[in-house]
Amino acid sequence: MPLTTDIQIHAVNVLVIGSGAAGLRAAIAAAAGCEVLIVGKRPRTDAHTVLAAGGINAVLDTSDPADSWQQHFADTYKEGYGLGDPAMIEIMVRKAPDAIRELADWAPP
Ligand SMILES: Cc1cc2nc3c(=O)[nH]c(=O)nc-3n(C[C@H](O)[C@H](O)[C@H](O)COP(=O)(O)OP(=O)(O)OC[C@H]3O[C@@H](n4cnc5c(N)ncnc54)[C@H](O)[C@@H]3O)c2cc1C
């Protein structure tokens, strides 16, 4: 493969590698007082985040009063065929409501 000569130099405080949801959320957090550069190896339209169907689950206490983080945990573990790390799933389902509310309230600076 030939070496590219199209080299650009940027000096920033934080470099985020990956422009999916995880990278973009990290960039938002880092952007408070820092200059951030996001780099991805594929076009922006090719990240799983862009290809996803768009459903996000969290227990928000808005529809089913019997819903709980424990039920969300059980559903997630079962739908993952028992392959998910229970400790990671618990963190995700416990933090999901705050993350969804944060996304809903977020506005570009
Ligand atoms: C068709 C489809 C439907 C889905 N539907 C849902 C859904 O309904 N609900 C749901 O919750 N989840 C869904 N998912 C899963 C969800 O999209 C992913 O779990 C989530 O988007 C992952 O986000 P991410 O930021 O970790 O990764 P990605 O969005 O994949 O981003 C990774 C980024 O890293 C970059 N990268 C990778 N390697 C390198 C490297 N070496 N150097 C530089 N950059 C690199 C990539 O180019 C990309 O920009 C779906 C996924 C797919 C594919």
From TrEMBL:
Keywords: Flavoprotein, Oxidoreductase. One of its GO terms (molecular function) is oxidoreductase activity. It holds the Pfam family FAD_binding_2. Residues 14-106 form the FAD-dependent oxidoreductase 2 FAD-binding domain. PANTHER family: SUCCINATE DEHYDROGENASE 2 FLAVOPROTEIN SUBUNIT, SUCCINATE DEHYDROGENASE [UBIQUINONE] FLAVOPROTEIN SUBUNIT, MITOCHONDRIAL. This is FAD-binding protein. It comes from Nonomuraea deserti.
